[in-house]
Amino acid sequence: MMFIAHDIKASRVNLLMNDYAAGLPSPLSFLGLGESIVRDLGLENWDSRTIPILHSVSISDGRTKPEMERKSGKFMPVETMEDLTGSVHLSLIIDLPGCDRAAQLKELLQTKRIAGGAVQNEDIRVESVTADGSVFRKIRRGYAMLRPDTERLNHLQISCGTERGLENIAYTVFPAQREPGSGWFVPVSVGYKLLENADLVPTRIRTRNSEIPHVFAEPILGIAELVSVRNYRLRGATESVLQSLFWNWTMQDDYILGHINYMPKTIT
After folding, report:
1. Which residue ranges make up each domain of the chain?
2. Helices 102-109 and 27-41, interaxial angle, to 10°?
3. In this structure, are residues 63 and 81 in contact, taking their beta carbons and an 8 Å threshold?
4. What is the pTM of this model?
5. Cystine design at 84: which of 8, 15, 143, 144 (Cβ 3.0–4.6 Å)?
6. CATH for 2-61+82-143?
7. Which residues fall within 8 angstroms of residue 108, CB to CB, at 6 or more apart?
8. Mapped to the 3 state alphabet, what secondary structure does the chain carry?
9. What average pLDDT is seen over the chain?
10. Euclidean distance between CA atoms 187 and 21, whole angstroms
11. CA-wise closest residue to 117 among 83, 88, 142, 92
12. Which residue has the higher pLDDT, 192 or 170?
């Protein structure tokens, strides 16, 4: 079932997506939130899909050094400081196959984190919605973070840090002229390219989960489009169009991505 969670407020959200993009929460962080909910509910892993709507993002001006504490005769940091954090006010469209209780989703959201930042408010309103563009009529002003839907941009969506790839993305983010009806293009983290075979990697110490292999990966830079929820492209979207806009985990060969459109054409 598809839900909309209104007015989620989180603080200390990590706004450093990867080595190439910063300033907004990564779209992958909302997929991580959805996956955490899926596992709490005992639903099918990797089945959640999300569309984040950003109402505001404020960068924090906090400490630049971690708090220290004396341990074993030495002063040691007791927290990990991110390079760029902030407060985020957002709404979230989330599709959870197998879940039909809005109250249960609301209860879980109040205990979750978004990119490391704890959800701060208890007055989150969650409601089930129909699977078409009418959902955007229920949302206060904001910008949906989407993968670009124009064929012109598809070949620009993936870069593992190559000079040419970064140049192409820069030209797209800062166009000489915006097309009528287009949103704002922003660089975002869209996934990872594995550098090792997950079935062959050795067991490594200090991993979060001993049952999940630790695999070194390379971050992938792509482009997302921030589109106003007032835009007819969203409000007039049919069910099939809306379904194609959701972020969802896509895994193929050495790639783990947040949307199938970011898959290199040589693979697809």
Report:
1. 2-61+82-143, 145-262
2. 120
3. yes
4. 0.86
5. 15
6. 3.30.70
7. 37, 40, 41
8. CEEEEEEEEEEEEECECCCCCECCCCHHHHHHHHHHHHHHHCCCCCCCEEEEEEEEEEECCCCCCCCEEEECCEEEECCCCCCCEEEEEEEEEEECCCCCCHHHHHHHHCCCEECCEEECCCCCEEEECCCCHHHHHHCCCCEEEECCCCHHHHCCCCECCCHHHHHHHHHHHCCCCCCCCCCEEEEEEEEEEECCCCCCCCCCCCCCCCCCCCCCEEEEEEEEEEEECCCHHHHCCCHHHHHHHCECCEEECCEEECCHHHCCCCCC
9. 86
10. 6
11. 88
12. 192
For residue 112, give both structure tokens: 């979750």
Average pLDDT value for residue range 247-266: 86
Tokens of 152: 């012109």
Q: For the chain, give the percent of residues with pLDDT over 70.
A: 88
